[in-house]
Amino acid sequence: MTALVGRLQNSSGGKASLGRITKRGDDYLRTLLIQGDKSAVMSADKRDDPTSRWLQQLVARVGWQKACVAMANKNARILWAVMTREQGFDARHVSVKPPGKCRQPASARQPQTCAA
Predict the structure, then answer these.
(1) Residue 16 burial by Cβ neighbours in a 10 Å radius (0-12, 13-18, 19+)
(2) pLDDT tens by residue, 11-57
């Protein structure tokens, strides 16, 4: 999926992270995502769901074209998650960040730090 959309994918320490949408990958799929999200951005003021409210705030902050690309990026991430986890999409899903690992100090004088 990442290669089809042209997303950068990095792996560090066994954890894969998805980057931004690039011009690499399938032009047609990327065009479909952007075109679909243009209509979502342009009609966001007519709807009152959480995504539309987010889009309205984003358009006010960065402009409608960057908001379209941001929405396409968000939809590409959703598509990737649905395809890799083989579960249906739940619009009300709230992700929970796992607790961070604590790093032991090098000496007794330093406080223990935990990554958030």
Answers:
(1) exposed
(2) 566 665 555 566 677 888 888 999 999 999 999 999 998 889 999 99
Query: What are the residue boundaries of the structural domains of the chain, listed by start?
Result: 2-89
Q: Using alpha carbons, list the distances in angstroms from residue 64 to 28, 59, 86.
A: 21, 5, 32
DSSP result, 4-30: HHTEEEEEETTEEEEEEE-S-S-HHHH
Whose structure tokens read 């990737």? 80
Q: Distance between CA 38 and CA 67 in Å, rounded?
A: 8
